[in-house]
Amino acid sequence: MHPPRRLWWPARVPLRWKIAALAAATACLVALAVGVLVHVWTAMDVRDRAEMEATNTVYSAMDVYRRTGTLAGGAELDPAELPTALRHPADGDRRVAYDGRVEGNLGPSVWGAQRVGGPGSPVLAVRINMSPQLHDLRRLDASMAVASLVSLAAALPLAVYGAGLVARRLRRVAETAARISAGDLDARTGSALGHARGRDEVTDIAATVDLMADSLGRRLRIERQFTADVAHELRTPVGGLLAATDLLPPGETEDLLRARVRDLRGLVEDLLEISRLDAGAEAPVRARVPLAAVVAEAVARTGLDAEVSVTEAPQAPQAPQAPTVESVETVETDPRRLERIVGNLVVNAHRHGRTPVRVTVEGRTVVVRDHGPGFPADLLLDGPRRFRTGAAERGAGHGLGLTIALGQARVLGAELRLENAPDGGAVATLRLPR
Description:
By secondary structure, the chain is of the alpha+beta class. It has helices at 15-68, 131-181, 189-193, 201-245, 252-279, 291-302, 325-329, 335-352, 377-382, 401-412, and strands at residues 76-77, 95-99, 109-115, 123-129, 287-290, 307-311, 330-333, 358-362, 365-369, 415-420, 426-431.
């Protein structure tokens, strides 16, 4: 059994064209309904007038015939074309009947008939030709069709223009909502829509989006302030704990406690760094440094095993001059923040991936790759979140390493992209700006 065939329809139809098509269809339906009503009413009026004229003509002709014995007003006695229904009218009864036959320019017609005398006497009949009136009716239909087409041609551009205004306002609201979802909580629809007069559904949607952005901004500020307050409050007691561990006698307990306090201190420092990044209080201190050397130093500071390789970036074919040593081996950036980014990426690769971990430097690009299960799907979709490390099999951690790396990359104006390699493993690509 074959599946039902789907009718073709464009995958995406702009709203303005949908509204314009709906307006055009409505206008066509209204024009059709009005045209049908006018046609039916006019046709009934033509027939009623013809029947009335036939009745009056029969009355006048019968009066003349009875007084003078002559036929007047086109009257005939027992005409051959008289419809069967009128051949035997009652004595003195005037009757009319419709005859739809058309013979040349004659017809359709309305017949009026009345018996001249008693039973068996001839029937006086009058035929009223309706072809002139029906011709006028056809001209009226044509005129209404032309007028409907002209009105539709004039109304359609206005409908497209009006629908375009609504679609543009909705598009601006959607663009503002997209900016808010991308992290720009200062974006508002009020500036995008301008000072719109009145209030309608689009204005209500825009106001709702602004309220949502205000609510998200307040919640985020509260969260950032809470994180900063907790980190500041913990910094002093953690420092005291670290100093107190120096008073413990050497041994396994002292080593274990010192390691845990050191981890706690690292967590507090990470929280303080995140709060500064969230507040926008960080500014890079730029210097021209050799990129490969800074990357190698950052990997060495982690104390983890990672292979560092340097390849020369391919030159554009339209640039004939030879690249200078400065343009290939050095970059202008903040070396401390660059080391922080590379170190966090290497630690994350060892903690959540599997060896070998390779760090590749090519031009202004640094690539850190492991051979583990790769980044979780939700991390690739929504980005890293603090205190969330993904699947349980990815290991332990506070989920702050990638968050800090992304924040420091934004401070440097660099791009940090996270993806999974086709043959397995997580790939973090850092591209420094020129």
